[in-house]
């Protein structure tokens, strides 16, 4: 539902702009309001799951998300829609932040956990495809309000199932880590950082005084948070989580890889629509083969790959394929065709993502104990969200700047547009190449015997080298 919501809104933005009278700049807040709340609260929400109850935070977030979705659907003004989208981001963060923590504690046996995560990854990849298709169908067939109303029955069904199937859990208690100053600092730092990336950096440029000053304030707040956590008796985020080279390295790899890939999803859509002339529904169908490949690998083969080759080797192979797919995208011509210029690249990306990301998330969660599984889950989602926002802002800016330069040189409009796309895809491939170097040099190979130990029933005992297939 949450993955679907992201893609379905992007497809419906033109209809929302026309109906509610948004300007081009104000329309961005339909997306940005959600991103700021979502990205800013993931880490805090994950830790609250450890302190209170992961089941409780999940259900509370689901309730907030569903109610906010209904408010979005009923919105008749710009202000109401933007406010409801912010609240929807709060609910999305609460729900998403604890999901991996719930899974790694519910399924301590490696093979059982890998199967559960395989289904989870399959559903997530399916959500992206369904969102693109549903956005076109609902917006063109009914109206844009229904892209939000569709969350209500899904959310209600999920809530009923969760109350019946998720076991009740008790957290450490607020005394175990209720660090209010730390919570304020980290939330403010992340919200301000995401806001800076998606708003002034995108509109004014990365070298503007406003962008640089806001980034400096965000960095200062983050530094104060780290200092606070190092000295607090009961820190909100125990810094021991970052001592594992695999955990820190995997999260760094994820941020860079997602940043490199995210431009493909955004600029790839623009290429299909503005160059090849696809409509919204056709765009969704064009990305369907990639999602099918991702889902099939997550569901059927990710566990086997990790068990056979190890999490690090599987991740490295996936990163190579992702980089190759983006490099192939960097060759798209003005008179291209889907079968020759788009499909091969998307299939490479689908194989790389479907095989590499479950291994990456396994490494990112590898140092989690039962007491901080929610924190580790929130951290995984935070690095992905910040990477996505940063990648979109940087690659979209580079693409637009390059297009403007080529147009100023007198190049034809389509040629200038393609030149911008090609540069962005090439930079995305370079970011993934950097993440490959980090994975190769920082992440340690896991102990294979731990992967095959079917009697390992405690995530803490399995320690930080357990190569189970955990997906995003």
UniProtKB/TrEMBL annotation:
PROSITE patterns given in the database record: MFS
Single GO molecular function: transmembrane transporter activity
A Pfam family per the record: MFS_1
Membrane topology: Multi-pass membrane protein
Chief location: membrane
A cellular-component GO term for this protein: plasma membrane
Location of the Major facilitator superfamily (MFS) profile domain: 1-447
Keywords of this entry: Cell membrane, Membrane, Transmembrane, Transmembrane helix, Transport
PANTHER family, A to Z: BLR6921 PROTEIN, MAJOR FACILITATOR SUPERFAMILY MULTIDRUG TRANSPORTER MFSC
Protein name in the entry: MFS transporter
Organism per entry: Nonomuraea phyllanthi
């Amino acid at each position: 539902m949450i993955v679907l919501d992201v893609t379905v809104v992007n497809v419906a933005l033109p209809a929302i702009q026309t109906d509610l009278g948004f300007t081009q700049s104000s329309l961005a807040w339909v997306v940005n309001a959600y991103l700021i709340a979502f990205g800013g609260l993931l880490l805090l929400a994950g830790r609250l799951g450890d302190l209170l109850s992961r089941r409780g935070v999940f259900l509370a977030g689901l309730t907030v998300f569903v109610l906010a979705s209904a408010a979005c659907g009923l919105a008749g003004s710009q202000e109401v829609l933007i406010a409801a989208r912010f609240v929807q981001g709060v609910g999305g963060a609460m729900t998403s932040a604890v999901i991996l923590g719930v899974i790694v504690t519910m399924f301590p046996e490696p093979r059982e956990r890998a199967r559960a995560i395989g289904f989870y990854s399959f559903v997530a990849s399916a959500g992206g495809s369904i969102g693109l298709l549903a956005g076109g169908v609902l917006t063109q067939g009914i109206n844009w309000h229904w892209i939000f109303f569709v969350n209500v029955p899904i959310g209600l069904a999920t809530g009923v199932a969760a109350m019946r199937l998720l076991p009740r859990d008790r957290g450490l208690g607020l005394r175990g880590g209720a660090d209010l100053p730390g919570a304020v600092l980290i939330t403010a730092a992340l919200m301000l950082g995401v806001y800076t990336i998606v708003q002034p950096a995108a509109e004014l440029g990365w070298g503007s005084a406003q962008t640089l000053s806001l980034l400096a304030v965000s960095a200062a707040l983050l530094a104060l948070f780290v200092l606070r956590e190092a000295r607090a008796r009961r820190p909100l985020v125990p810094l021991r989580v970052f001592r594992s080279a695999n955990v820190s390295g995997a999260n760094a790899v994820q941020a860079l890889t997602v940043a490199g890939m995210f431009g493909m999803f955004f600029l790839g859509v623009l290429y299909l629509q503005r160059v090849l002339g696809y409509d919204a529904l056709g765009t969704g169908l064009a990305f369907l083969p990639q999602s099918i490949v991702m889902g099939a690998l997550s569901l059927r083969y990710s566990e086997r790959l990790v068990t056979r080759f190890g999490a690090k080797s599987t991740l490295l192979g996936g990163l190579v394929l992702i980089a190759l797919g983006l490099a192939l995208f960097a060759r798209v011509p003005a008179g291209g065709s889907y079968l020759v210029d788009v499909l091969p690249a998307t299939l490479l990306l689908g194989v790389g993502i479907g095989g590499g990301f479950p291994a990456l998330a396994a490494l990112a969660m590898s140092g989690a104990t039962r007491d901080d599984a929610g924190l580790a889950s929130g951290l995984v989602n935070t690095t992905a969200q910040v990477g996505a926002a940063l990648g979109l802002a940087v690659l979209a800016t580079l693409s637009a700047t390059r297009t403007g330069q080529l147009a100023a040189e007198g190049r034809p409009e389509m040629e200038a547009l393609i030149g911008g796309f090609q540069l962005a895809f090439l930079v995305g491939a370079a970011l993934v190449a950097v993440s490959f170097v980090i994975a190769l040099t920082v992440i340690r190979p896991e102990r294979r015997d731990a992967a095959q130990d079917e009697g390992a029933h405690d995530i803490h005992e399995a320690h930080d080298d357990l190569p189970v297939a955990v997906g995003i």
